[in-house]
Structure formats: structure tokens, C-alpha cells
Amino acid sequence: MGNCHTVGPNEALVVSGLLFAPGLLEGLLVTGYSGRPRGPGGCCGSDYKQYVFGGWAWAWWCISDTQRLSLEVMTILCRCENIETSEGVPLFVTGVAQVKIMTEKELLAVACEQFLGKNVQDIKNVVLQTLEGHLRSILGTLTVEQIYQDRDQFAKLVREVAAPDVGRMGIEILSFTIKDVYDKVDYLSSLGKTQTAVVQRDADIGVAEAERDAGIREAECKKEMLDVKFMADTKIADSKRAFELQKSAFSEEVNIKTAEAQLAYELQGAREQQKIRQEEIEIEVVQRKKQIAVEAQEILRTDKELIATVRRPAEAEAHRIQQIAEGEKVKQVLLAQAEAEKIRKIGEAEAAVIEAMGKAEAERMKLKAEAYQKYGDAAKMALVLEALPQIAAKIAAPLTKVDEIVVLSGDNSKVTSEVNRLLAELPASVHALTGVDLSKIPLIKKATGAQA
């Protein structure tokens, strides 16, 4: 028997040897297997091959062989280093190609003949060699400007030249793009600088011309704008003037009507206010009459209340106070009479005492006068001597307020002589004041004689 093999759309299945013929499996299942298989599939030794992708195929055991080939897209990176262009400039070019095995039966058979049994990397190497060879040959026929400035055309040319060769291997070039182009002699940078300068120059000229045209156009637009603005402002001013005039007329008419309405309203309001005031006056008169009647009743009530609460108690209080006053008066009279009697008695007693003392003093003075008369000058001298200390005390009284007395004299004997002089003059001073001559007293006479 055999196996049924399935394959996805990204892979191709190749069955070789004794193949499954249509109707053969069905016959074997119905009648059983006897003898050699018959049908389009052939028999042993047949060179017929079956190519299947995205389907299934039957393979007999031992007499059929199955192999698979990937149909997925393969990315190939092509590098050409130091390849001279038609101008002799060495370039480094890198391209990227997307290739895959074609699924047309004839081309798939060709690809299977060449790549069946090889892995994907071996297939990539074969295609890479072919693409790099064509890339090198095409680089030698183009200038640097053609390669650098028109990369799409360059890539298209590579695809067109290499497509027949890889197509004979059953491989299709899906895309080919130039990834990078550069050199190590600064040719491209110099070319870029020159082109940049030219572009910058053209850009500056274009900017200047554009600014000039823009300035001219801007001035023209401003002029047109100002003309339109002036015309519009004039129309607006005319419309505004007409509007203000019409508005003033309307306002005047409205004000007249408003004033008339206001005057009529005020007159009517005054009439209504007068009626209201008249009614209020009548109400006030009625209220006032009622109030007068109420006040009269209130006066009577208040009078009675005052009589009951004030007058009657006041009369009772006055009578009480009068009785108390009369009692107090009698009391005071009696007290005054008693005090007067007391004072009179005291006065009489004091008068008797004073009279007795006067009589005693008179008797004393009489006796004293008789004694003075009897003794004569001696008595007078005694009185003067008794009065001298008092006189000295009165004279020296101001000196009691002095804290310290300083006698300015450098001679001690002079101070003594001054004191003696004062004592010697004392009898003369007393004689001038009292008429008593102290020098006649023996003690004083002796003392003054000694001082002399």
C-alpha cells in the first residue's frame, strides 16, 4: 500500500516512481489487488513525475519517492564593492532582491531539476552569483549621476537583464531595489556640494524674484483694499448719518408722545392722590374723634386712679408727717428749753467761777501792787529780771533756724573782747527799754566794773 501526502501553498511536493493513477485506488478497494496496476500512471520504471502544491498526492511504499521544495520568498542581499563605472569612478553598491520559485508546471519542473535536494541557502547562493554578475556588468555601462540620481531606473534595468537568466532556472524576481550607493573618493559628496550650490543659487534667485513679485502684488492689493475701504467707509458714513437723522426724528416724536403720556399720567396720578388724601383726612378725623373720646375716658380713669393711688395715700402721709412734725416740734422745744436751762446753769456757774477768780486775781494784783509799792525799785527790778529770759528767747528765736554760725576772726582775744563789750552794753539797753537801771544792782555793778 502507500501513504497520502499533503502539502501547503508555500511548498511543492514532487512524487516520482510508481504513481497513483485515477481510479486505481477505487478499483483496488472494490475488487482487491491482483497483478500490476494499470492506468495513466504507468507501471514500474515509468519516468512520470507529479508536482503538487497546496494539495495532496498518493505515494506507494518502496516504489514511489517524495521530495519537497520551498516556494517561499527568498531575500537576497547583493553587494558589489569597488566597481568602476563608465567614468572610472569606483563605487560600492548594495541591492536587495526578493525572489521565489515559480509555480507554473514547466518552470516548476525546471526548478525541481536544478534545486531539488538543495537547501534554501544553496538556492540563494546560486541566484546571488547571477544577480551580482549582472549588477557588475550594468554598473560598468552607467555614469555615477545615472546610478545615484535614478536608482529606480537602475534597479529596473538590473531586473530586466537578470530576469531571463534566473527565469531559466525557474526563479522569478519579484523586486530588486538599490539600498545604498557610496564611494571612498568623495565623488558623490563633491557632486552633492556642486548641485547643492546650484540649487541654493537658484533658490535664492527664486526667493528674491518671488519676494519682488509678492511686494508688487502686495502694494497693488493694499491700494485696491484702501480704495474699497474708503468707498465702504463713505457709504457707511452716509448710512450712519441718515440713520442718525431718522433716529433723531423718531426720538423727538417718541419724546413728545412720552412727555404727553407722562403729563397725563401725572395729572391723573395727582387727582387720584388728592382723592386718596381726602379719604385719608376723613379717616384721620374719625380716628381723632375716637381718640379724643378714648383720651377723655382715659383722663377720667387716670384721675380716679390718681385719687385712689396717689392723692388719698398722700393726704394720709401728709397727716402722718404733720403729726410726726408736731411731735418732733414739741420734742425739740422741750429739748431746747432743757439745753437753755442747762447752758444758763453752766453760765451762772462759770460766771461765779470767773467772778471768784477775778476777785482772787484782783486781790492778788492788789497785794502785788502793795508789795511793789512797798519795795519800790526792788520790785520793779525783780519783774525786769523775770522778763529778761523771755525777751532773750524772743530775740534769739530766729537764730534757732540757723544750723551753724561761723565767726570770721583770726584773733581769739578779739572774740572775747566782743562778748565782753556786748555784756557791758546790756544794762544800758535794758534801761532804755524798761527804765530800770541794772547797774545799781550790786552783782551786776560788780560784774560791769570788773569788765571795765
UniProtKB/TrEMBL annotation:
Claim: Membrane is one of the keywords in the record: yes
Provide the alphabetized UniProt keywords.
Endosome, Membrane
Q: Describe the location of the Band domain by residue ranges.
A: 111-293
Tell where it localizes. Membrane; Endosome
Q: Which CDD domains match?
A: SPFH_flotillin
What InterPro entries does the database record attribute to this sequence? Band_7, Band_7/SPFH_dom_sf, Flotillin_C, Flotillin_fam
Query: Belongs to which family?
Result: Belongs to the band 7/mec-2 family. Flotillin subfamily.
| Subunit (UniProt) | Heterooligomeric complex of flotillin-1 and flotillin-2 and caveolin-1 and caveolin-2. Interacts with ECPAS.
The protein's name: Flotillin
